[in-house]
Please model this.
Amino acid sequence: MIRSGADIQRNRTAIKDFVLLGFSGAPVLQVLLFALFLLIYVMTMMGNISIVIAYRFTPSLHTPMYFFLTNLSILEICYISATVPKMLSDFLSAHKTISFSGCATQMYCFLLLGGAECYLLVVMAYDRYNAICHPLLYATIMSKRICVILVTASWIGGAINSLIHTNLTFTLSFCGDNKINHFFCDLPPIMQLACTSTVINEIVLLVACGCVIVSSFILTIISYAHIITTVLHIKSSSGRKKTFSTCTSHLMVVTLFYGSAIFMYFRPKSSYSMNQDRVISALYAFITPLLNPFIYSLRNGDVKAAVKKIGCHLMVGQRY
Model:
């Protein structure tokens, strides 16, 4: 049966909401997944909020490094909150729908925060490079004004990148299937539902991935390479060991974040596999926000001391 142009146009504009299939499975599995992701969410929020509070109430932490770490924690709080609350409600709901505008908003927020994190990780690597490789000029190079500019630029860069992708994606025509084979509104699964050509979207995605994710990863690696080269000249073996340990842990998290994001976005649409992609997406959507506060901040003696001090004050205040 041949449909008329009017029928096709009605179908293209008929979709008012999407269905997030998420991690489908038996009801018992849904409850277990709910408990797992709730635990991840609570731990991530507690870790990042403790860093923000420690920075706010500890004047000795008001340095460029902790300023960037605090901004990373704020970003991670927003980043994981863009996807997890909706996903948790879907685990316990029979109706896993999300409105057309709600889907667009979720995608915009997620891409904004993801892009901002890419840039912020480069900024943090640059900060450590200056602190270790140019210690005498560090205070001049990383002035308060420069720090604010770098963080602001990270957020603006993420916002522009997100606006381009969200606008291109949601001006596509969607007809027929409205089931998103994913746990949130991400670019690849949404583009798979489009009933019009996505060639322009794919080209823009590949270019943006190269400009934002790949270039940020390369710059971060270059910064750490210079840091490691400088560390090799440290005479103290304990100093070398401590710095190498810190750099290694940082590089592990950075590689996990950038690597999974590159795999997810830096490939043609024909190679998308949603069952596999859901696992990859979980790495940069949930695991890195969980690891970042523990890898970057909560292993640091100054931060741990500040958190303990604030915790003791709170406990004493509750007693009295």
Summary: Residues 18 and 98 are 5 Å apart (CA to CA). Confidence is low (pLDDT under 50) at residues 1-13. The longest helix spans residues 100-133.
